[in-house]
Each structure stands twice: as C-alpha cells, then as structure tokens.
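Cross-check.
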Amino acid sequence: MKTTDKEFFRIINYINKKYGISLIGKRALVEKRLDNVLTKTQCSSTDEFMDLIEKEEYELLDNILISEMLTNHTFFMRESSHFDILNQIILPKLKKCINQQEGIRIWSAATSSGQEAYTINMILQDYFGEEAKAWTMKVVGTDISQTMLDKAIAGDYTKEEMETVPDKWKSKYFIRKINGDYKINDYVKANIVFKKQNLIEPIFFDKNFHVIFLRNVLIYFDIGIVNKIVDKVADFLEEGGYLFIGLTEILDINSTKLKYIQPSVYRKL
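Predicted model, tokenized:
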C-alpha cells in the first residue's frame, strides 16, 4: 500500500518511539506489510489505524503492527556455530564451576516463535543426559511480539519448520501429529518460560544468566540505542558469562562490561 510522506513517518516514528526500532530506510517493506495490518484490523486507511493505536488503548492493534513490520525469520539450529560453542566450551565450564542447585540460566532475548529457546534447551538435555533431572535449568525466551510468543508457547511446528531438526531430536523431544507436523513435548517445555519484553524498556529478572543470545535483533536499532541495549543486557550476565549476537551483525559495541572474544561472541568482564 502506497503511503504519503506524512503517513509513512507517522508509522515509523510511532514504532521508533515505542520500540526504538528504526525503519527509516525500509519504506517499501513498511508499505508492503501495511496491507496486512489494515486487513487484520479492518481499518480503511493508515490514518484511521494510527488514530486508534495512538490512543494507547488498543494493545491488540499494537501487537499486530509490530508483528507484521518485523521480519520474524528463525529456525531450529540457526547459526549453529554458536550452539557448538555452547555445547563444547560453555557447558563443560559451567558443569565444573557451578553446582546443580544453582543451576544454569540462559536467556533467548529475541526468541520470535521459540525455535532458538527450544534449541538451547534440547542442547542442555543432550549434554547432561541422565544427569539433566538433577540440574536446575532455566531458559527464558522473550520477544516484543505476543503473536510470536503465543506460537512459541504452543510449541507447534510444521514439517517444513522441522527440516533443520536432527532426526534423533524429532523422536526424542517432539510428538509427531497425524498430518506430519510436530509438537514439542512437555518435558522440553518444562523449564522454559516465555514472556513479552521490549528491550528499550526496563528489564526485570530475579537472577542473572550464564549465557544470553541477543541475535539478529540489534540490526533494527540505531547505534546509540544498540549500545544502551547491550549495556543493559550485559547487566544480567553473570561474571564470565557469554553474550551472542547474530553472525551477520557487524557492530561497534563499545561496552565497558564486555570483552570481545570473536565475531558475534562477547564475555562479561
């Protein structure tokens, strides 16, 4: 849907103010996805939609807008080299230096429809094997889109979405449906919590994390906001904890709280 300059800037300024996300150079994408927004909300024009959403009384409209405007592209085992580091380097270190009751805490900070959080948990279960039941483990998945979180909580995935899942995981951690789709089993769900989180708003957790995945989300923010978000997120890392960003995110992270390890991998000082 074509927009006037006034309509376009009204939309992107709203998103920028509320979420810190910059869409200034993505007019074609915004206009393309605006059709879906208006169809789903039954609004006849951009101005009608914005008049409603700016009243701050329509959380559903806000969720539709942000869910449509962001690229919620994810899949199981995405950027698998990070999971290799988790499995081969981080978990052995954690197993040696923390006790079972203290446990392991990992945050998937832009979890989208849940594949990242579930991948993390399946790696934990595989690594600890029979010992897993003796360990306290918690994986937290957060996102700004309630639509994506609802899908994550449901844990239902099509056979196409399961193409990157190893066969041994399909049989061990999923229930196959009659139509060929899959549902994550309750055992994998048991120690995962999903909740809504806007990264530019205050963040509250009762304990820090040993690992944080903040991948493929920083590209949406201007560099000034990126530094603030990274510093804020780093506050919730245990000393020596690891932060992962996306492999394609080449960012100038000037945080005094983090040490550069290798591209896309940082550690809490």
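DSSP finds ten helices and ten strands in the chain. The first helix runs from residue 5 to 19. Passed to J.P. for a second look.
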